[in-house]
# Entry
Amino acid sequence: MDPLRDLAKFLLLAGAILVAVGALLYFAGKLPFRLGRLPGDIVYRGEHTIFYFPIVTCLVLSVGFSLLFWLINHFRR
# Structure
């Protein structure tokens, strides 16, 4: 295969992913759920500190990215 053609495919795919992520971030305020503020995310507010650990958000993003990469791999074959 031609290396230039492989680079072009990669750049097109990377551009499409960047556009999708940008659109998601742009319209995130209008979604019915807020990533980072899902039920199950841990927030501890002390007197002088705030500890925040978005465990459920991490799980949701992990499942979403795993599904996305599985679909990409499935259609590449």
Q: What stands out?
A: The longest helix spans residues 3-26. The helical segments are 3-26, 55-76. The first strand starts at residue 42 and ends at 45. The mean pLDDT is 88.
